[in-house]
Design goal:
This protein is of the alpha+beta class. It contains eight helices and ten strands. 27% of the residues lie in helices and 32% in strands. A hairpin with a 3-residue loop joins strand 1 and strand 2. InterPro entries: Bact_HTH_transcr_reg, Chorismate_lyase_/UTRA_dom_sf, Tscrpt_reg_HTH_GntR, UTRA, WH-like_DNA-bd_sf, WH_DNA-bd_sf.
Length: 251
Amino acid sequence: MPAGWTSAHPRADRAHDLADRLRGQILAGKLAVGARLDEAVLVRDFEASRNTVREALQLLSQQGLIDRKRGAGTTVASAKYGHGLDRLAGLAETLAGYGTVRNRVLVAESIARLPDQVAAQLEIDPTAGGVRLERLRFINDEPLSYDVSYLTYEVGEPLLAADLAGSDVFALIEQTTGTRLGRAEITVHAAVAEPHVAELLDLPDGAAIFTIERLTRLDDGMAVDSEVLQIRADRFALQAVVHRDHRADPL
């Protein structure tokens, strides 16, 4: 039995104890990314019941530290992908340094009427219509995010003939309009993936995700892209460098 291990608690407590020990090994690098966690080996090494081991692994899976896939077993999860909040960049642009990024285009269509809330964000009448895009984003062949975008008709229509599977929408907007993007208003919150989103992202029911709501404007301030990105929280980290405002500093 590993030193420091105790099994004198109820099963739920023992599962948490085991999860804590395994978490420590993962974070310390003693269990490398991709290392296989075999239930039978854990039962033997920790002298725990199979149910205790399964509950501990479920806890680690919910925390994004391990991957559990039917037919492939349980392995230590890869590191999270970082996305900075200190500059305006598309998700594909940000992820390019982490591996192969590709999009699966689920919907790309012109619509005659925009949802009222979206039209209000884009500062146009709903009957002006627009373009709706739905994309499933993969990195290194693993699903990472499900993105839904509404664009103004003038900006979005030329994109329907573009390479939406292989290109970043931000780059396409700048290419087709000849105008740089200027700024975006962003809201980030935690959510539980709805069943159809969990299925698309290969997540268990009730898994946590990041939801990013972003309204992007051209350099002249015109709103052109209202989007919602639903991103796997176990694969993603939001990062920023912030500076203290010393204008009111009494020193």
